[in-house]
Amino acid sequence: MSLPEHRARKRFGQNFLHDQNVIQRILLAIAPVAGQHIVEIGPGQAAITGPLVESGARVDAIELDRDLAQWLTQRFADQQTFSLHQQDVLKFDLGTLSDQARSLRIVGNLPYNISTPCIFHLLEYEPLIDDMLFMLQLEVVQRLAATSGDPQYGRLSIMAQYHCQIDHLFDVPPGAFRPAPKVTSAIVRLRPWREKPCVAADIPLFERVVR
């Protein structure tokens, strides 16, 4: 099925990945396997979605854009392992997809205008998540991976690192997208700790202190 005639919508923060070398590097990092349960946020024009479905993994895609959601539904209509949810990821309840610990893998090219609130939303479902692999603005990845004393170190660094191991995998130039964003992007993996290095005695208090 051909790509949709779709103009990127600024209000959705849409930039569509088209560089095949970058796509292959992302797929190698994800390494999808048949039987896995993968949640893709913002599948867009299915550059990553197609290979995920072809791997035999179960794929739940969350897409807010109504036109793209309709195209994706048609594109994968004959795939029993694909489901499309036309919803806002910030309001999506991952608990409706699974109640099994460490059963979900989350991937996506997160809209840069909601990337930080999206990460905080997903961290609420940490017990369900095996790992997360995202395309983000490089600046956000640097904040996620920053250590104490770095200029970028702040609330996002502290909260993300409390819940997850952070691995900055590689950078992606603006030209890998259409339209090209004005910033460099990066691929990052967040893997929830199996055993946290330290455990906060009072999570709500901890969150208030670092807010």
What can you tell me about this protein's structure?
Helix 3 links the parallel strand 3 and strand 4. The protein has one domain: Vaccinia Virus protein VP39 (Rossmann fold), CATH 3.40.50.150. By secondary structure, it is of the alpha/beta class. It is built from seven helices and nine strands. Helix 4 runs parallel beside helix 6. The protein has a seven-stranded mixed sheet. The protein has a two-stranded antiparallel sheet with strand order 1-8. The relative contact order is 0.14.
Under the CATH scheme, the architecture is: 3-Layer(aba) Sandwich
Q: Point out poorly predicted stretches.
A: 8-12
Our measurement of the CA-to-CA distance between the termini, rounded to an integer number of angstroms, reads 46 Å
Order of helices and strands: EHEHEHEEHEHHEEEH
Neighbour order of strands in the largest sheet: 4-3-2-5-6-9-7
List keywords for this structure.
alpha/beta, Rossmann fold, 7-stranded mixed beta sheet, two-stranded antiparallel ribbon, 7 helices, 9 strands, globular
